[in-house]
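Section: Multi-chain targets

For targets with more than one molecule, the full set of components is provided together so that the structure can be written out for the assembly as a whole rather than chain by chain. Components appear in the order listed by the source. The example entry contains two components.
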Amino acid sequence: MTQHVLAWLDERLDISGLRAFIAEKTVPRHRHSVWYYMGGITLFLLGVQVASGILLLLYYRPSAAEAYESVQFIVSQVEFGWLIRNVHSWSANLLILMAFVHLFSTFFLRAYRKPRELTWITGVLLLFIMMGFGFSGYLLPWNELAFFATKVGTGIAGAVPVVGDFMVRFLRGGDEVTGATLTRFYGIHVAILPAITTVLIGVHLLLIQRQGMSVPPSVEKRAKAGEKIPQEPFFPNYVLHDVMWWYVALAVLAALALFLPWELGRKADAFAAVPAGIRPEWYFLAMFQTLKLIPSHIFGLEGEMLGVMGFNVAALFLLLVPFIDRKAAAGAPSRIVTATGILAVIYLIVFTIYGYFAA
Amino acid sequence: MVKRRTFLDSLLGIGFVSTALSVFYPVLRFVIPPANAEPATDSIIAGKISEFKNNSGALVKFGTKPAILVRTSDGDFKAFTAVCTHLECTVQYKPETSQIWCACHNGLYDLAGNVVSGPPPRPLEAFTVNLRGEPGQEDVVISRT
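Its structure, encoded as tokens over all components, is:
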């Protein structure tokens, strides 16, 4: 029976070709192979986000009058609602953390060099999109902290020269953060960003399948010198290793969701004073803290504007790394690129911790 | 004697199945809506007595469902659920015949809620109407009996 169904499908879809591809596919093994799994964990967490997000949609109501109450309803009345919400919130944070780990590991292993520039670019864009997910999702419970964090966050867009005011209005759906902002963020969070993500992830994964895993320049040099790099079959060996890492991620996620419930706080009130200790999600803290430290005016220019422009330039550099680092394509790791990467990691870690305790 | 490979394979299989079960059980419970999705309403104030003319009917919100408040030609108040017992259409008052009428399939009820004609299988659920407050300024209160 199964044979019959498979033969029927094979005739139409050429499954045997795909099976042959999977059967022959191998993944290189070397001392840096462990970093290959970081992308897999990120993908797994994205799957968790999609599934738990769809579940939350069953009860969530995107309006200023009902959003907070509906989340309260989910966590207090719906069976396992607390679990689904905690999983969604924690998984979001782990996803961004793993995306950063994945980004920096591919950066230091020079995986972006020719011919994988497009994989890098789609990956960096996905990281930005994930941060957009985080920012838009943070507002949806419509609680006090999220309300003011969104006010500050969208306000920063106003520092961009020329288009700043337009961007603030565009993001907020008006001049202020109101119910209109909530509806807008909801649409961005559940429709626009998922649509873009689907396309980018599709291209990202297709490129990885098509081009195979990148090996670091040091390993590539050995291979060119005639040394044989050990390979492991993609299926089932590599896939099972991947799944093992997914289990690790699932265990961490379950522990966090069970023992550290995500707070809901108080309902947003536009006329209340900003609560003390307000700060954005941790992945925006480094930027937040930097903006706080920049003097209000530098050489007659607005400090905040310079800061925001600086972040934009940094983002552009990150996106264009494959074209800036010409040496990597030739197989020669550049010291400047490595040093810049290390400095970036140190800056992000130090300023995130600093921002956490300074707030 | 079970082969080592078979044993390990089944162990792996059991692991996967248990993971799937421990994920799907909470998900299944989550998608089933809780019983008390909306708080039950027992009593509402429909309005002031002066708002309702003799031989007229009004639809009012009673919790999540509509109720029909009828003031008869004699000035008495009657209230029923406004949900037709046939296919849950909302009924209306017909002043010409002093009956409650469902426009969907031409169901007719009398002012005791009983079916006069048409497809409805059961009478309309009746509510109690009380008048509360100063004479002439009373609130019309509808409550579940």
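Chain A has one domain: 2-283.
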